[in-house]
Each structure stands twice: as C-alpha cells, then as structure tokens.
Amino acid sequence: MRGLKEEHAGVRIAHQRKLAGLTQRGLAAQIPYSYSLLRQVEEGRKNASPDLISAVARLLRIDVTALTGQPYVTELQQDRLAALIRPIRESLDLYDLEDGLGHVPVTEGDRGRWDGNGHGYGGNEVRPAELAARADDLCRMVRATQLSKAGNALPAFVAEVTSAAHRTPSTVLWQTLGSAYRTAHDIATKLGFYDLATIALDRLGWAAERASDPRLAAVRQYMRALTYFREGEHTVGLRLVEAGHRALSEIDSAEREARETLAVRGQLHLGASVIAARAHDADAVEGHLHEAAAYAQRTGEASRVHWLSFGPANVTVHEVSAQVEMRRYGKALEKSRQVRLPHGWPMSRRAHFYVDRARAEMETGRCDAALESVMTARKLAPEQTRYHPGARETINGLVAQRRRTPDSLDNMAAWLGL
Hints:
Elements: H1 9-19, H2 24-28, H3 35-42, H4 50-60, H5 65-68, H6 73-78, H7 85-93, H8 128-143, H9 147-167, H10 171-190, H11 194-211, H12 214-230, H13 234-248, H14 259-278, H15 282-299, H16 312-325, H17 329-336, H18 347-363, H19 367-380, H20 382-386, H21 389-401, H22 407-416
C-alpha cells in the first residue's frame, strides 16, 4: 500500500497541529481524546473518527476538509466529476438575473424539452407542473447516486427555472427553484465541495422565502444543522433544528397535521439525534429518537416527502448512526441487525447505512465484515462511496490493523485513491 501513510487524516492532523505550535500532549489536553489515541491516529495505527476530526478542527479553527483532504480532486478528475462544479457554481451565482446563465447549451437528453427561456423547444410554454416534475427527477437521480447525470443536467435546469420564476413568479416555481438548489447542495456535499453546498443552502432559503413555504424553510434549517454537525458545532446545530421547528409552527393550522409536515418534523428530530450523539448526550439522543419514532408511526414510509427518506426505517438507521457517534460500537452492531430496509429505499441512504456499519465493525475487530460492508456500499452507490470520508477512513483503519492485506482490501484502497 505505497503512499497510504501520506494520505490518512492522522498525517494531516499532525501537520496542522505543528502549524499551530502544539505538541501531541498539548493538543490532546484540549480535546476529549487521550494522548495515546492521538499518537496512534497520527501514526496511522488507529482510525481518525469523524468526531475526533471535528474536535481537532474546531480547536485549531480550521475547516474539517483540511483534515479529511476533501475534495478529492485527483479522483474527481479521473471520474470526470470535477468539471461539474464550475457550471453549478455559476448557476447559483447568477440567481438574481432573469435570464440566469443566458444561453444554455442543450444536451441530448434535454433535446425536445427545454430552450432555457421558459419555453419548450418549438415555442410551447413550459407549465410549472412540468418543471416541478423535472426537479423531482433530479432529486431522484441524486438519491440513486447518479451524481454525474444529475450534475450535468442541473445548471441548465436552474437557468430554466430562474428565468421562469423571475418572469412569472408563483409559489410552484419558487418551490421548484428551491428543489433545484437543494439538489445542488446534495451534489456538492457528496463530492466534498462544502463551500458550494453552503451557497446552495443560502439560495434555498432565498427561494423558500419567495415561495412562502415554511416546510421548505424547515428542510433548509435541517441541512444547515448537519453542516454544523460536520464541523462539530453541536450547540449551533441544535439551535438550527429548533429554528426548523419554529418555521413549521407558521404553517396554517389545517396543514400542521399533514403527512408532509409530520415527516419534516420527524426528520428534524433525527438530525438532532445524531448531533446530540456526537455531543455524547445520551438522554437527548433517546428523546429525539422517541419523538421521531412517534412521527414515523403516523407517516409510515414517506421517502418522497422532500426526498428525506423519513419513516420507521430511517429512525432505526439513525439509531445505528447515533450509537456509532457515541462510540458504542457493540450497541451499534446490535441495532444494525434489527434494520430492515424497505424495498425501493434510496441507494444513497442504503450505502450510508453500510458505511456506518463498517465503522462499527472495524472498531470491534470485525475486519472482514467491515470490508464487506464497504464493498456493499460501493456496489450500491459507487460515486457516493468513493468520495465518502467515512469509507476512506474505515479502509485506512483496516489497512493499519492488518499486517497482510488481502487483495480485496488492496483493491478497495486503490479504488478510493489511498
């Protein structure tokens, strides 16, 4: 495994620690981790968990990407995904221009559908319902982890809806534009461009305000909360969850018990559960999971409500994630055996579950099972798994634990670019 030692997060932690003028003991004294563990992480003999990475980043006042190495530019270029980013960035930047990106190149897949100016090719006016359906298609692609396909189609679509919404503003068109911005956020996040994901969330808030849609505003707060969760800012994350609940309280009383509203409320509790877990607040975790489960009983599997995958299955998957975040790896494995993923559940969520399970398996010494779980995640969602920092750190950890690595592990590490 040549080059692996230079790639893992422990090396980056050591580099940033030295830039800050701290010794290993000095850094360990200021984070909730032992000197022994920190030393092993920096030497590559232990895995750098997401909570350790966020704790170090928060203390050193740097972004977590400085420690995870995201975005993984070499692999993105190899997969021809890096070229997706600039057009998406431009489409988000020109949100306040009526003609969006102006002339939009027509891809073969869009030929006969859009002209970039709110009309179908041939001059037929595109109805808002048709644009909303197209936005839904893009969400579906991302959930199927067809990131390249969705990313290629997105800029032209954003320009299309931007133009339509400015010319003939309506609730449906602003909601549709909000959905497109949400897709931009999801693609940027999965590929490790967190600065772009933040811009997309700002645009989502702008569209939600014009749509006067509290549910869309609440979904945005949920996603903002997860951004701060990644950075280890637990208190801010939980405040954003509460802001999401407050947004939902603005809904007309007749709609407060609607399935869509209940699903968003439940998902906010799931977000709060993993944030509280990383803060090691077991009581808060239990409370939020209990609330989410109660909402899930009322909604059933509501995977297409804002594409949140909310429902009983997502509650059990978040129970696993919460146990992993609290470093209760044995408990996480026990919970994972109770998970029954519904038929048709999004590949993105399935793969994420297997990455979480792999971490618990690795930390409990089940190396073969951990490798199998990452391989399953790869099979389900190759583009997502290749750029998932958790998958990469798990494979790094497995290599560090094995004196002799099997060909399957070598191949997986090479595929991840380690």
